[in-house]
Write a structure and sequence with these properties.
The structure is a single chain. By secondary structure, this protein is mainly alpha-helical. It contains one helix and no strands.
């Protein structure tokens, strides 16, 4: 019984570590997406400002 409990605790610890790593990855990717959106908006403004009209 104690062996099974230790095994479950180890699995839970690993799952928590993996979840933390995944959360960090998602956070970084969201930052990159936000930056890319800003870049696209800036490029769109440049195109509109430079377009003959």
């Amino acid at each position: 019984m104690e062996s099974r409990l230790n095994e479950l605790e180890a699995k839970l610890s690993l799952a928590e570590d993996l979840l933390d790593a995944l959360n960090r990855t998602v956070y970084r990717q969201q930052q990159q997406i936000d930056q890319l959106r800003q870049d696209v908006r800036a490029l769109r403004r440049q195109l509109q400002d430079g377009a003959p009209g």
